[in-house]
Amino acid sequence: MGAEVYPFRRFKIKKEKTMKRSLTVQDLRRLRDYPCEKWQRVYVDMFMLSFYLCGINMVDLVALPKIKRGSLIEFRRSKTGVPCRMKVPEVAWEIIDRYGGRDRLVSFGEDCCSVEAWHNRLHRMNMALQKIGPSSYTYVKAKGRGRNMKRKKVYVSLFPELTSYWARHTWATLAAESDVPEIEASIIKPDVMEGDKVSTRSGYNYQAMATYLEKYWSNYNPAYRSFAGKGGDCTNFVSQALRAGGWADKSGWYKSSDNWWYNETNQTWSWVNVDYLGTFARSSGRCTMLDNVWKLRVGDFLQVKAANATR
Questions:
Q1: Which of 69, 123, 126, 216 is 20 to 30 Å from 275 at the Cα level?
Q2: Exposure pattern of 278-293 as b/e (b: 16+ CB <10 Å)?
Q3: Where are the alpha helices (DSSP H) in the chain?
Q4: Distance CA 125, CA 116 (A)
Q5: Between 206-216 and 234-244, two packed helices, what is the crossing angle to 10 degrees?
Q6: pLDDT band at residue 49, thresholds of 50, 70 and 90?
Q7: What integer pLDDT is reported at residue 209 of this predicted model?
Q8: How many CB atoms lie within 10 A of CB 217?
Q9: What is the spatial distance between Cα 281 and Cα 109, in angstroms, rounded to a whole number?
Q10: 5-40: pLDDT as tens digits
């Protein structure tokens, strides 16, 4: 697609290295096993529980209702509304049993009766995590005239930037390195598994789709025909990415929106036509409609039409 049709083609987005927000396996074990102070232990345990539960966000964790041992955890992500279901490993139950709540899965945050109170609790958690490490006392002069020296505790932080959100990134990173499709069957239902680095909902590799788009958006893949002069190449390019992420061909009459395929001599209308692709994606069950654009994630595709357009 040329710049005359898609003006944003003229611009290039500057890439910046993402700040590291995940722990290595060694650091994760070090955090778990470190003999921290008693007041810090609950925060370390909540961090580990978040990690054990597939990197669940803290706000979702503290909202979980009580369940019986052996039951699945079921919830909708507060951020996206995506339904999730997962098994609870034994290491997670050890923490849950230690901090069981009255009505919630854990008591952490159960007493927060306002958003502000929860934000303060989360802030204290982050501060506690960043103070994990050896400590000692020093003496500093107290403020005010004629004041005596006062004793102050100083921490040598092992993880100076650590926050609760690192649990999610750590799980996603380690899951990706372990090849999530191999382990997800024992951890979480495939169609709701969600990670920041790799997502394989319904068996599709959404990161592979994004990688394909990044690789070929300006360097056309010669394995496919171009339809740039035949009404536009957008849907063709999207179909290529979907196939790269695991969409299998659906054979049948090429003019039917029930089918989706491409070969050396022909392709279905659903491969190259925006309306036909949208129909196939929904009717085949490979996609579902979102009610808000902000729920889009890596690997999702967005179809747009003008307000007065009939197509």
A1: 216
A2: bbbbeeeebbeeeeee
A3: 25-33, 38-52, 58-61, 90-98, 115-129, 166-177, 180-187, 206-216, 234-244, 269-272, 274-283
A4: 14
A5: 130
A6: very high
A7: 87
A8: 12
A9: 41
A10: 555 555 666 655 555 678 988 999 999 999 999 999
pTM of the model: 0.54
What does the pLDDT look like over 251-278, one tens digit per residue?
999 999 899 999 999 999 999 998 899 8
Burial class, 122, CB count within 10 angstroms (exposed 0-12 / middle 13-18 / buried 19+) = buried
User: Which residues have a Cβ under 8 Å from the Cβ of 172 and sit 6 or more positions away?
Assistant: 22, 55, 195, 196, 197, 198
**CB 311 within 8 Å of CB 275:** yes
CA end-to-end span of the chain: 19
Q: Which residues pair with 257 in a beta bridge?
A: none
Q: How is residue 242 written in tokens?
A: 């979907």
Contact call for residues 91 and 231 (beta carbons, < 8 A): no
- 216 Cβ neighbours under 8 A, 6+ residues apart: 237, 240
